[in-house]
Design a protein that fits this description.
six-stranded mixed beta sheet; binds zinc ion; 653 residues; 20 helices; binds N-(4-aminobutyl)acetamide; 36% helix; alpha/beta
């Protein structure tokens, strides 16, 4: 148990920010170098690095706020407290990490877990992180402190009862909440609000209090229909708790990255704050990850220190300001230091730092907030009223396609995405103008988009225009920026071979998907459903079909490309060369309007023939979508449609 430094105990008499006549708030801080010893076994770089808590501490010292706080030494959690939310096995596993003699033994354990590294000091850090949050929470509940901030690592909110994951070993905040409720009835804490503003969903905390009405868990996080870490449905707004805990779990799942102060404050003003008023917590525990901060390499959002300070200030109105912050994620050292300082200044009761949030929330933010309110209004009357039109009309239009069906589940993807995001963060205005200008131009041109795969079924195709998810799809689409439906729909046949190949997709799961050979072959007739849409919308379909996470300041297929395709018949798109449908083929014209389809390249066809890329029949759900399209489009009876698909799927190329 190491001491972080001298406890300054009493506050100076003439601190700045002190409100005359009112004594300054007593703010506890925990920091302990020992928690820096948890690190990657081989010294490899990792975003969850020891410097994270160091830079926060240094920032607070440099700003002179540590002297105004009560600095506490860290303390180790007790096994019996950890076991209030974790299994015995899990506690034993984490404890045993330090007794392992060799890195390879720890590496073997870590490799079984999702996003976890371990070294000889990991157990000690985990015990100190959990124990320190318990300690601060206890002192705040007792009234010895007004509020506090435990600057700890490893973080906790992903850790589940029996599983370490997402850089988290013990669920620090959950242990503290359970300790107050179950071990300290004498302190009179009966209702706890846990606010989790880390950019990731607090899956562990959610599960631990799923059926517990004493804990209201609120998490706001990037979700993107279940593709953002920790991926899946747990972070959905439909997850409201169960049994006596029904209604006491609230998720605000962002549909997109780039959310900033305006989006978070909208979630505060129209969900969290009204519910907190009704719930009236005895104490607030804050899972304070700073990975939604502007500049964070994993989060892709842009909350400013000012934004954090306002969010915190609004929470201070409850529980007589009894609030315990615990660090969770946050991976840009500069951002987490500045954000932490802004928060501690609020805890101290200083005037909030200067700043402004001029931007409006995204359109998608209002959609999410409205959905959350609707889902939860049965439990919280303050959410019943519809939001005024005037309010929700104040919005920043959703940026053009950021990601379609790609997953951000892997770090690689995340980094790739972030490279693009960070550019956007800085030069947002330029990008927005650039992207609006090509859109305006291409919105004036109509084309026929000829579909031969699942898009033949209209409800599925409309997902690419209006966003959402049709039956059989495992994943939703973001849609086009122009959500107007196709102006006309007609069917035609074209002399191109239809076939099925590749292993699986995120949208449909295991099984091949449809392609047509870009080369004409008069021995085959392929049925296609033609949608008359704008060239802007066609680009948005191309982005989504090719899993391109671009907020494109340039189109994939512009007027020059259209000219080329009309002359040459087909054009493979450089920018979509990794996509599966990066080849645009002109099938002819109807009047003035060109008929375009998208498929694989000729070189991919060679690879299908050689077996380098597998030919594979479609999965049931995918095949059914095609069959439905053909039947509802009046092309075939169901039997005929089945035979048509079977035939295309079974004949060699
Ligand atoms: C605490 C936290 C993030 C895990 C991301 C794993 N974890 N890819 O922010
Ligand atoms: Zn996080």
């Amino acid at each position: 148990m190491a001491m972080a430094g001298e406890s300054s105990g009493k506050n100076c008499g003439d601190c700045d920010g002190k409100i005359a006549g009112k004594s300054q708030r007593k703010v506890g801080l925990v920091y302990d170098e020992t928690m820096c010893k948890h690190d990657t076994p081989d010294g490899e770089d990792h975003p969850e690095c020891p410097d994270r808590i160091r830079v926060i501490w240094e920032k607070l010292q440099l700003a002179g706020v540590t002297q105004r706080c009560v600095v506490l030494g860290s303390s180790k959690a007790q096994d019996k407290h950890l076991q209030l939310v974790h299994t015995k096995d899990h506690v034993n596993l984490v404890r045993s990490i330090s007794t392992k003699q060799k890195d390879y033994q720890r590496n073997r354990i870590a490799s079984q877990l999702n996003s976890i590294y371990l070294n000889g000091s990991s157990s000690e850090a985990a015990y100190l992180a959990a124990g320190s949050v318990v300690e601060v929470a206890e002192k705040v509940a007792e009234g010895e402190l007004d509020c506090g901030y435990a600057i700890v690592r490893p973080p906790g909110h992903h850790a589940e009862a029996d599983e370490a994951m997402g850089f988290c070993l013990f669920n620090n905040v959950a242990v503290a909440a359970s300790y107050l409720l179950n071990e300290r009835p004498d302190l009179g804490v009966k209702k706890i609000l846990i606010v989790d503003w880390d950019v990731h969903h607090g899956n562990g905390t959610q599960k631990m209090f799923w059926k517990d009405p004493r804990v209201l868990f609120f998490s706001v996080h990037r979700h993107e229909y279940g593709s953002f870490y920790p991926a899946g449905d747990d972070g959905d707004y439909n997850m409201v708790g169960e049994g006596p805990g029904e209604g006491f779990n609230i998720n605000v799942p962002w549909e997109q990255g780039r959310c900033g102060d305006a989006d978070y404050l909208a979630a505060w003003d129209h969900v969290l704050i009204p519910v907190a008023k009704e719930f009236s917590p005895d104490i607030i525990l804050l899972s304070a990850g700073f990975d939604a901060a502007i500049g964070d390499p994993l989060g892709g959002c842009r909350v400013t220190p000012y934004g954090y300070s306002i969010m915190l200030k609004k929470l201070m109105e409850f529980a007589r300001g009894k609030i315990v912050m615990a660090l969770e994620g946050g991976y840009n050292l500069d951002s987490i230091a500045k954000s932490s300082l802004a928060c501690v200044q609020v805890l101290l009761g200083d005037k909030p730092i200067q700043g402004s949030s001029e931007a409006y929330p995204f359109e998608s933010t209002w959609r999410v907030i409205q959905a959350v309110r609707k889902r939860l209004c049965a439990y919280w009357p303050s959410l019943v009223d519809e939001l005024p039109r005037k309010l929700i009309n104040q919005k920043t239009p959703t940026p053009s396609i950021l990601i379609s069906s790609s997953d951000s589940e892997t770090e690689d993807d995340t980094h790739r995405l972030l490279d693009q995001m960070s550019k956007l963060n800085i030069e947002n205005h330029q990008v927005d103008t650039a992207s609006t200008s090509w859109r305006a131009e291409l919105a004036k041109v109509d084309i026929w988009y000829a579909s031969y795969g699942s898009n033949m079924w209209k409800p599925r195709f409309l997902c690419y225009i209006q966003g959402g998810q049709a039956e059989g799809m495992k994943k939703a689409c973001v849609g086009s920026m122009d959500k107007s439906p196709p102006k006309e729909i007609v069917w035609e046949t074209f002399p191109h071979r239809l076939f099925f190949g590749r292993e699986s997709t995120v949208t449909w799961g295991v099984g091949g998907v449809a392609f047509t050979n870009p080369l004409t072959n008069l021995n085959y007739l392929t049925h296609m459903c033609l949608y008359r849409i704008t060239l802007e919308q066609f680009n948005d379909v191309l982005f989504q079909e090719n899993v391109l996470n671009v907020d494109s300041d340039s189109p994939l297929f512009d007027l020059a490309a259209l000219q080329l395709v009309e002359n040459k018949g087909s054009l493979s798109l450089e920018a979509a060369s990794d996509g599966w449908y990066g080849n645009v083929v002109c099938l002819g014209k109807e009047g003035d309007v060109p008929i375009l389809t998208m498929t694989c390249t000729r070189s991919a066809v060679e690879k299908f023939i050689s077996g380098e890329i597998p030919l594979r029949p479609p999965a049931k759900a995918y095949a059914n979508t095609l069959i439905r399209g053909l039947v509802e489009g009046g092309r075939f009876s169901e039997k005929e449609a089945e035979a048509y698909i079977d035939n295309a799927a079974s004949k060699p190329l």
